[in-house]
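(Deposited chain)
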Amino acid sequence: MSGNSFDTPLVLSGPYRSPKQMLATQEYDGHLSIHDDKTAETLGFKGAPIEGPTHFSQFVPLLTEIWGQQWFESGCLSSHFQNMVIESEEVKAFVQLPQNDEKQVSVWAEKKDGTPVLTGTASIGTDHDPTALEQRIAKMRTAENPVILRDVTVGDKTEVTGTVKMDFDQHLGAMYPFTLREKLAAITEDTPWHTAEGDTSPWGRPVIPLEMVCVFSQFSGKPDWRIREPNIGLFADLEIGMIKGPLFVGQEYKIDREVIAIGETRRTEGYWVKSMIRDCDTNEALAYVLLHHAIMKDSFPGYAEELAAR
């Protein structure tokens, strides 16, 4: 976008949207998740939250307006989730416009009543300041005596067996009880680039939506590390970055994952996993997902007693 001679920070925003809840029947390790109303209520929440990656879609038109096609090829959205959104609540996305050819800008989202939903950064290419999550990890309180994550270690790695892909009508498993086609029918921001072949897409192929890149990295195989059960967790932080993007519907990829940090807050123990999505033939890194899984301490039976006994 063209600049101007003022140094006044300017903001680009989209309309209010009402994202849809698509995880009410989500299961992992044989039990319902926090996206089930009753489960959420037992943990003190007023209702089941919409999955955090859903909000990423509202930023894509704004960032495409700023950086164009390059956003799909080397863009990164990095966010800390601040407050949960319940279905029927309206959310608006904001992006601070870059000045002097900046490669990284601030982003945030709010509910209609002003309640913050998320905050973070968006960047393009590799020549930019540390992302929002890189900054958070650097300041994070390390978990010195974890209970739920007792058997997880920074540096733990796993590789998804074989190749993985996402087709339009492929069922994504118990963790994601919907198909890509069903998601596209409910997504807050759609474009022919998600579905079209040929000249309609700059790459001649349909592109996996940004929010579904997180799904793609998660549904394709269970990691090897051992997390003690039962527990209930949520996504506290998420960064999705394109290195040589975009990713395409129906294309086969390889995925490997690594635990890069373990931390805690008063209410949670959390582990940060970086999933690398690679070219099947060259092993070249094409995109990545950095995800902070925050596990509610109160959801693990006997947590306080076990901690006190150590």
